[in-house]
């Protein structure tokens, strides 16, 4: 007996738009059922930070790093919102979809490969982070942050940062043996990076070695880019910052794919 | 000789560390037929299913699905296959129709045909009036039907059903059998794994009995039964001591036996019995007799 032939469609490629679309459609349709809670957690938390630091610290210090404190925090907080709406949902969402809902088994049985699955998931989370990242900045406007044309660049900065952090979260979920392992990552990686990103206080107050290290912190680069955009103070060093964010995204993307290949295909 | 194969496996081996889950498996699934993979838990059925979608990569052997070589061309094969997993992985906060909509995209149904495809799947699964119900509000049987319908939304030529009725009550099982039978009569090729004897006997044109990762026998169920277990079986009940005596006598008469819980079954009682005669219940031989005989294992 011969194996059937004659149904060979066009050869399929490694990355296909229809595969990415399929995964994105699933996310968008699902989003309609949980957007309230996702929007709440991604925006309320950074807004609380904004208000707490703005009013708390703001009453002690009026100017920081050459800016009014509300301007300083209102821009820096974008990076916090991006982190909360990308790394965290990516970690938990990926683990739940892999381990508990077995969604990825269903998707990989369709004509979608792991690379496409991870890429589409990261694109979706990055897009959400691009939107959510702007919300605390918008909240800061009535508190004294002056609107500017440069604010229109912020969603793109938030998007590219969010892509890297989404891939970071997927990779963590891919390597984690249990959901409890996430606390190591949150305590040892995310919290320090989040605190020394120049969001709440300028990193110029830190020791020299910490300032050098901060350049490798994508959250710091995100904060600096947002300030350059919002206050219209672009400089050549901002190209370097964009390069860091791209490099972070690219590296994390490949690591996330590797992690999920290991987990999903045996 | 005339039929083409939808699936062809030759010498397939899959190891997980020191465990060999699939051990030199050969499998042919001719187009337009329903083949049942029958075996106890741990026989390698689910691993075989995962190999066919390249979610597991074989260590050795050749795999072809719909003319595509795996794992290299698996994506093309998957585009024309439907897969019903053993574990329910529907999106529970979405409605019935939304679940089908998502899969109509994942399986790349052109926009113009999407609506009809979803409608067809709803009809097939008898869920037309439940289209707007959230999955977590459906009964177990409805969820299973939706899971199968989801794998049919793109009109696949080949459907892989991994334990389609596991854990369901008998009435729901009957419903699903009707659904699978309808699919079969439409000419869809089916590979179904199961550990329910009755399911294999009713639905499969050909059954492949698996044990410890390889095929121990294959053929149409009636042929397998008559070849290995004869036409009739005599089941003798009694206390353990009595059963041991019956076994010994049957052995002396050249008859094969197997223990079935509280009784001993004497196989091939229709043939030469060499004077062996006991009171007991006569019943037709079935696939379970064949299975136990060939593998020495109980199935369920």
Describe this structure in words.
The complex is a heterodimer of chains A (266) and B (300). With 266 residues, chain A is mostly helical. Chain A contains 10 helices and 2 strands; from the N terminus they run H-E-E-H-H-H-H-H-H-H-H-H. Chain A has one domain (36-264). In chain A, strands 1-2 form a two-stranded antiparallel ribbon. In chain A, strand 1 (63-64) and strand 2 form a beta hairpin. Chain A starts with 16 loop residues before the first helix and ends with a helix. The model of chain A has no long low-confidence stretch (mean pLDDT 91). Chain B has 300 residues and is an alpha/beta fold. Chain B folds into 3 domains: 1-80 and 157-219, Rossmann fold, CATH 3.40.50; 89-155, no CATH class; 230-284. In chain B, the strands form 3 sheets. Chain B has a 6-stranded mixed β-sheet with strand order 6-7-8-3-9-10, with helices on both faces. Chain B has a 4-stranded antiparallel β-sheet with strand order 2-1-4-5. A 4-stranded antiparallel β-sheet of chain B has the order 12-13-11-14, with helices on both faces. In chain B, a hairpin with a 2-residue loop joins strand 9 (206-211) and strand 10 (214-219). In chain B, helix 3 crosses helix 4, helix 5 runs parallel beside helix 6 and helix 8 (221-228) crosses helix 10 (287-295). Chain B is globular and about 70 Å long. The two termini of chain B are 35 Å apart.
CATH topology of the largest domain in chain B: Rossmann fold
- Helix coverage percent of chain A: over 70%
CATH architecture of the largest domain in chain B: 3-Layer(aba) Sandwich
The total count of helices of chain A amounts to 10
Spell out the helices and strands of chain B N to C.
Answer: EEEHEEHEHHHEHEHEEHEHEEEH
Q: What is the succession of H and E elements of chain A?
A: HEEHHHHHHHHH
Q: Using the CA coordinates, give the radius of gyration of chain A.
A: 20 Å
């Amino acid at each position: 007996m011969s194996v059937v032939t004659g149904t060979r469609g066009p050869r399929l490629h490694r990355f296909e738009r229809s595969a990415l679309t399929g995964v994105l459609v699933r996310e968008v349709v699902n989003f309609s059922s949980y957007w309230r809670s996702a929007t709440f957690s991604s925006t309320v938390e950074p807004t609380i930070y904004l208000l707490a630091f703005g009013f708390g610290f703001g009453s002690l210090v009026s100017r920081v790093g050459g800016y009014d404190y509300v301007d300083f925090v209102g821009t820096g907080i974008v990076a916090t919102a991006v982190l909360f709406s990308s790394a965290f949902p990516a970690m938990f969402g990926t683990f739940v979809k892999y381990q508990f809902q077995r969604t990825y088994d269903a998707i990989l049985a369709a004509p979608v490969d792991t690379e496409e699955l991870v890429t589409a998931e990261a694109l979706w989370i990055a897009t959400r982070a691009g939107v959510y990242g702007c919300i605390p900045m918008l909240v800061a406007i009535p508190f004294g942050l002056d609107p500017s044309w440069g604010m229109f660049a912020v969603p793109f900065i938030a998007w590219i940062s969010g892509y890297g952090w989404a891939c970071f979260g997927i990779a963590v979920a891919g390597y984690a043996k249990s959901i409890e392992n996430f606390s190591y990552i949150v305590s040892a990686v995310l919290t320090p990076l989040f605190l020394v990103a120049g969001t709440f206080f300028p990193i110029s107050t830190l020791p020299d070695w910490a300032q050098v290290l901060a350049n490798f912190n994508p959250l710091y680069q995100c904060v600096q880019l947002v300030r350059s955009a919002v206050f219209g103070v672009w400089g050549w060093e901002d190209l370097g910052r964009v390069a860091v964010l791209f490099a972070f995204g690219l590296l994390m993307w490949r690591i996330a794919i590797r992690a999920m290949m290991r987990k999903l295909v045996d | 000789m005339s039929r083409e194969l939808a699936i062809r496996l030759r010498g397939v081996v899959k190891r997980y560390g020191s465990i060999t889950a699939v051990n030199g498996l050969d499998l042919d699934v001719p187009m337009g037929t329903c083949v049942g993979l029958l075996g106890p838990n741990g026989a390698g059925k689910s691993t075989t299913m995962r190999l066919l979608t390249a979610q597991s990569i074989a260590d050795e052997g050749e795999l072809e699905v719909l003319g595509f070589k795996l794992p290299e061309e698996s994506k093309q094969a998957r585009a024309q296959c439907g897969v019903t997993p053993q574990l329910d992985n529907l999106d529970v906060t979405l409605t019935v129709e939304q679940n089908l909509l998502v899969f109509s995209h994942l399986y790349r149904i052109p926009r113009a045909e999407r609506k009809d495809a979803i409608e067809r799947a709803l009809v097939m699964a008898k869920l037309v009036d439940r289209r707007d119900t959230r999955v977590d509000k459906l009964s177990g049987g409805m969820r299973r039907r939706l899971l199968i319908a989801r794998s049919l939304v793109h009109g696949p030529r080949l459907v892989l059903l991994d334990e389609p009725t596991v854990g369901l009550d008998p009435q729901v099982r009957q419903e699903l059998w009707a659904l699978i039978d309808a699919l079969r009569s439409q000419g869809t090729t089916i590979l179904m794994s199961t550990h329910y004897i009755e399911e294999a006997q009713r639905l499969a044109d050909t059954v492949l009995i698996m044990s410890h990762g390889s095929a121990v026998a294959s053929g149409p169920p009636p042929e397998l039964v008559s070849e290995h277990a004869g036409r009739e079986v005599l089941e003798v009940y009694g206390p353990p001591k009595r059963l041991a005596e019956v076994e010994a006598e049957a052995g002396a008469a050249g008859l094969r036996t197997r223990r079935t819980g509280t009784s001993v079954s004497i196989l091939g009682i229709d043939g030469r019995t060499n004077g062996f005669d006991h009171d007991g219940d006569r019943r037709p031989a079935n696939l379970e007799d064949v299975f136990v005989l060939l593998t020495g294992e109980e199935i369920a």
